[in-house]
Amino acid sequence: MSKSKVALLGDVADWTTDLHRQELDERWNAKLIALKDFVSEFGAMPRYKTFASEREHSLGVWLHNQHQRRTELKLQDWRLEALNAAIPGWTSKM
After folding, report:
1. How confident is the model at residue 78, as a pLDDT?
2. Does 92 map to a domain?
3. CA 2 to CA 5: how far, in whole Å?
4. Exposed, middle or buried: residue 67 (CB in 10 Å: 0-12, 13-18, 19+)?
5. What is the DSSP letter of 94?
6. Does residue 59 fall inside a structural domain?
7. CB neighbour class for 83 (10 Å; exposed up to 12, middle 13-18, buried from 19)
8. How high is the pLDDT of residue 93?
9. Which residues touch 3 (CB under 8 Å, ≥6 apart)?
10. Tens of pLDDT along 71-90?
11. Which residues of 24-36 are buried (b: 16+ CB within 10 A; e: fewer)?
12. Residue 6 lies inside a defined structural domain of this protein
């Protein structure tokens, strides 16, 4: 939902929004899109240790963090579903 629509909903009685959470979710979605683009372009997952570019490193660290959150059962369900749909096989075995 756009920020302008969220702002308008703020005027509705009993409606609460968390703009910070919305911004975090938008940034997460942008990283997911960047990850899809990277995998499509290179045919491989980005590396966070032996990376070839800053782009790969950034995406590799982000993906590593998603792995950690999933393992710790801290990755939100919608994010896990989005990752599974966007990049089948992205996970290591638990």
Report:
1. 95
2. no
3. 5
4. middle
5. -
6. yes
7. buried
8. 53
9. 19, 22
10. 999 999 999 999 999 999 89
11. eeeebeebbeebe
12. no
Question: What pLDDT is attached to residue 67?
Answer: 96
Kindly write down the DSSP assignment for every residue of 12-60, as one continuous string. STT----HHHHHHHHHHHHHHHHHHHHHHHHSSPPPSSS-SSHHHHHHH
Tokens of 5: 């629509």
- CA–CA separation, 45 and 75 (whole Å): 19
Q: How many domains does the chain have?
A: 1
Q: Is residue 89 part of a domain?
A: no
Task: Convert the pLDDT of each residue in 6-34 to its tens digit.
Answer: 666 666 666 666 888 889 999 999 999 99
- Give the end-to-end CA distance of the chain in Å, rounded to a whole number: 34
> To 10 degrees, the CA torsion angle through 49, 51, 55, 58?
0
State which residues form the domain around 46: 19-84
- The per-residue pLDDT for 84 is 95
